[in-house]
Amino acid sequence: MNIAARSIFWVVTFGTIGYGLFTFVKPDDELLKQLDQGSKFTDARRVSRDTVNVLKEAANPNSDIKRLSRRDAQRLEKLQKAHKAREEVDATNENEDYFSGAFKIRSESVEQLLSQIPTLETHILPQHFDNIKHEVNELQKFVVTSSFFLKEFNMRKYLGIVANLQTKCYELEDRYVPRKKFGFTRKKLPKSHSQKQPSIDENDSAGKTDSNKWDDKLFGFDSQEDKVLSLENDELFQRDVSLRNLKNCTIGLKGVMGTLHLTNLDNCIVLSGPVTSSVFMEKCTNCKIVTACQQLRMHSSIKCDIYLHVTSKGIVEDCSNIRTAPYNLHYEDLDKHFNMSSLNRNSNNWDCLDDFNWLAPDVPSPNWSILDVTQRVCNWNDWWSKTPL
């Protein structure tokens, strides 16, 4: 008998014997249950069965487990938001604390420079005033660049301190370094399409002392009417330019200025290249101003249209009927002048003015508005050479 046949024989034999025993001798069911409960595999099966039941219950949207899970998730999300908000507040407070300390140190430094003025000799004063103006401008830039975390109230407070320092500087300058009178300049005459115009005297006489050299930085036009006036970059570059007491004039400023002061202008058009720091307007009426700057401050002006590029928020105070539009001036070297001024051309807040006379945060100020597109001047090319209508 071969191996396969023998194997089949033994399988059939033992199978028959086992079947007979199971049929005629039945095992005790209670004994089998006891053996099954004592087995180590029974606990594993029970745990698996309980886990499946829990998962089924959790999958039911109306189950208690589901409800508790949602509640825990909402509570966790709320805690995370509260933690994030607390971190942001802490960071803002830290920034404001640092700013407050740094501002105090820098403003006190300017105050110390101002307090030294009465003790200095006359020939030193011009350079000393230049240093003070530079420090004040830097302090103003420091405030403006920190506006993203400063509260509006604090922003106004710090800008007010800077304005007071500027005013004190100019008052002391008028007292200790008297201005020269306006007269005809013998060097670097500003160009005019009508006739040679008087500007703030730069060099009346070579034989005079240097006591008025500060006028080399602050200059411009004063007391003119029905004129077309212009200055180029070689005359303007980083100087403090002043336009005062002008009526029915067009002023073209093709260059980079340090600051621009517009005072008591009536029915004038000012076409200005970029200004590195600030443009100050006061007592201007029925004017069109086209300018780009870091900061704009307007006081006591009415019925003015401002075509503006400003990297921080402009400020108006005691003004009415002010309308704004985006800066749209074009001339040959404008791109180069923007690069020289370091103004960010991608940041323009021409439509975001702060009115210090209007404190309602959720109601627009009635003192300024956006100039309607249909009423805007789209091309200024013809205005470089003619007076306002």
Strand order of the largest sheet: 2-5-7-9-11-13-15-17
How many strands appear in the DSSP assignment? 17
Which stretches are poorly predicted, pLDDT < 50 over at least 5 residues? 89-93, 180-217
Tell me the structural class.
alpha/beta
Write the layout of secondary structure elements.
Elements: H1 3-24, H2 29-37, H3 40-59, H4 64-115, H5 125-145, H6 152-176, E1 182-183, E2 191-192, E3 199-200, E4 218-225, E5 228-232, H7 233-236, E6 240-247, E7 250-254, E8 259-266, E9 269-274, E10 278-282, E11 288-293, E12 295-299, E13 302-310, E14 314-317, E15 320-326, H8 334-341, E16 353-355, E17 368-370
Parallel strand pairs: 4-6, 5-7, 6-8, 7-9, 8-10, 9-11, 10-12, 11-13, 12-14, 13-15, 14-16, 15-17
Antiparallel strand pairs: 1-3, 2-5
Helix pairs in contact: 4-5, 4-6, 5-6
Explain what this protein looks like in three dimensions:
With 389 residues, this protein is α/β, with parallel strands linked by helices. The chain has 8 helices and 17 strands. The strands form 3 sheets. Strands 2-5-7-9-11-13-15-17 form an 8-stranded mixed β-sheet. The longest helix is centred in the first third of the chain and has 52 residues, at 64-115. It is elongated, with a radius of gyration of 41 Å.
Key phrases:
single chain, 389 residues, alpha/beta, 8-stranded mixed beta sheet, 8 helices, 17 strands, 41% helix
What's the short story on this structure?
The protein is of the alpha/beta class and 389 residues long. It has eight helices and 17 strands. Helices cover 41% and strands 23% of the residues.
